[in-house]
Design brief:
about 550 residues; mainly alpha; 22 helices; rod-shaped
Length: about 550
């Protein structure tokens, strides 16, 4: 059986290895961050529903507001929808522009135009976006308006630098993007994000990380600002080659984006690319598809373009993964088949061994029963031997006492007869010898000593003997005596004297009288008459307490 067990254990080890080859090898801290992101992805429907309800609640109050209040609420709707639903956001931006034009408020007109240009850039409509920014009057702008204006230009040139085909055009757009970034650095509050981005473009990622980690923003609650912060930290770690740390912060950023929620983001699909490099193809495939779905919902052309560059690679890797899984499945099926065959052989052997064991148990049980019966018989025989030895010892002592006593009495009787002969003569001596009085006294004394000796050995003999008789026929002790003649007959039988002649001689009775006593007791038996004397002879003795 030992070689078979070893083969089964080897097959189980093969199955375990095949099941574990695809496990994620990230450290526990990064795995925990990814699992938190997975839980957020699983709750996407609940989070999205809460977002839609919030937008609808603000929209329902829009029609009952005056111009300024409506403009402020449209601004809030733009914040909610800007990176969530660009089509809806465009509608709100156009309504803002209409309200601003109707109010003839220059500040409102400039802010609404910048917001509209930003949204057009996110949709990929760069010509329209540039046209709108070109018509904005920049004279007299405050910092808030300048931020909106330069942010619109930043979004335009960022998108154009990503989608440009010609390298010269791409270089020009990057230069304009750097100029807009520098402008935002003097306006953006907090400006640390833009300053950190400038440091990264200059290759000083260590300073960027120090700046980002010194920011006092609340990092405990998920928010879009926290998502931007974590994304910026991840980019610096990525530039310095710390890819594990980049994965950690990209997962944090993606979790915040999804819990805000927004549909326009970069963290999730960039995280998917890093996970793909680490071999976590299944999670990367899920994240990239989720990102593509969100980008399609928000109509963000820049994100769709970036995701589409990664999707073919991950799709091919996913197909490879499926082929690898199929191979592992085939190996596992083969191992399971081998294991099933080994288990079948083991079951057959176990069944044969069980049959043998059952037969051995039956033989052992039968032998044990015979041994128990033999032991019981041996104990009974030993008890009888002990009892016989006790009887012999007791009666030997009694016999010695009787002999000694009777020798003394005979000598006393001799001296008495001698005195009678000397004083009374032969006639008086003959008269004494003819009398039975002395013999009767000696017999009475002898029977008393016999009764005491017997009851000392069998103190419950009378009660046990009466249990063998019918209630109306039970015997009792006669007045002045320990045993009656009937009881003495069966006391002698208990002691092993079963011959009626010997019993009659012992009791000074005729054989007929003894026979009648025996017949009388047999007729009075409560059970089987034929076995009455055998049961009486088997009455056991017990030790006195």
């Amino acid at each position: 059986m030992a070689p078979l067990i070893r083969r089964i254990a080897l097959a189980a080890a093969v199955l375990s290895f095949a099941a574990c080859t695809g496990e994620d090898r990230l450290d526990d801290i990064f795995r925990g961050r990814l699992e938190a992101l997975d839980r957020t992805v699983a709750r996407r429907e609940t989070i999205e529903r809460a977002k839609r309800d919030r937008i609808e609640s603000i929209g329902r109050r829009l029609d009952f507001a005056d111009t300024l209040a409506a403009y402020a609420r449209l601004d809030t709707l733009l914040d909610e929808c800007g990176k969530y639903d660009i089509d809806a956001a465009l509608g709100y931006a156009r309504r803002k522009a209409e309200l601003a034009a109707a109010a003839q408020d220059r500040r409102m007109i400039r802010c609404s135009a910048s917001d509209l240009a930003t949204l057009y850039a996110r949709c990929g409509n760069y010509v329209e976006a540039i046209g709108i920014t070109g018509r904005i009057d920049t004279a007299g702008m405050d910092d808030s308006e300048r931020y909106r204006y330069h942010n619109a230009l930043y979004t335009i040139y960022e998108g154009m630098s990503l989608v440009a085909i010609d390298e010269a055009d791409r270089s020009e757009y990057r230069q304009r993007l750097a100029a807009e970034r520098a402008s935002l650095a003097t306006l953006f509050m907090p400006s640390e994000f833009v300053r950190a981005e400038i440091m990264r473009t200059e290759g000083d990622d260590s300073s960027a990380l120090r700046l980002l980690h010194s920011m006092p923003h609340d990092r405990r609650e998920p928010s879009h600002a926290r998502a931007i912060w974590a994304y910026s930290v991840a980019q610096s770690h990525l530039n310095t080659g710390h890819r594990d740390s980049a994965i950690y912060y990209l997962a944090m950023s993606a979790e915040c984006d999804l819990r805000t929620p927004v549909h326009e983001y970069r963290s999730l699909y960039e995280l998917a690319a890093l996970l793909y490099e680490r071999g976590d193809v299944e999670r990367a495939y899920e994240y990239i598809n989720y990102s593509l779905e969100d980008a399609g919902q928000t109509n963000a052309r820049i994100n769709i373009h970036s995701i589409n560059r990664l999707l073919p690679i991950i799709t091919r890797s996913y197909n490879t993964l499926m082929e690898r899984k199929q191979q592992r499945l085939n190996i596992m099926l083969a191992a399971l088949s081998l294991l099933a065959a080994l288990l079948a052989v083991a079951m057959l052997r176990l069944r044969r061994d069980n049959r043998r064991a059952t037969r051995a148990e039956r033989i052992e049980a039968r032998t044990n029963g015979e041994l128990k019966a033999a032991n019981a018989e041996l104990r009974r025989t030993n008890a009888l031997l002990h009892e016989a030895n006790d009887l012999k010892e007791s009666y030997l002592c009694t016999y010695i006492d009787l002999c000694s006593d009777y020798i003394g009495r005979i000598d006393e009787y001799r001296r008495e007869l001698g005195g009678v002969a000397r004083s009374g003569g032969a006639a008086q001596l003959i008269e004494i010898l003819k009398s039975n009085a002395r013999i009767d006294r000696e017999l009475k004394s002898f029977y008393e000593r016999f009764d005491r000796s017997f009851l000392d050995l069998f103190p419950d003999f009378i009660d046990r003997f009466n249990e063998l008789l019918r209630p109306e026929c039970r015997v009792s002790q006669p007045d002045g005596e320990l045993l009656s003649t009937e009881l003495r007959v069966f006391a002698l039988i208990r002691l092993g004297i079963t011959d009626s002649v010997k019993i009659a001689a012992f009791l000074r009775r005729s054989v007929t009288t003894v026979y009648n006593y025996r017949v009388k007791m047999r007729n009075a038996a409560a059970g089987d008459r034929e076995g009455f004397e055998r049961r009486a002879a088997a009455i056991a003795r017990f030790e006195k307490q």
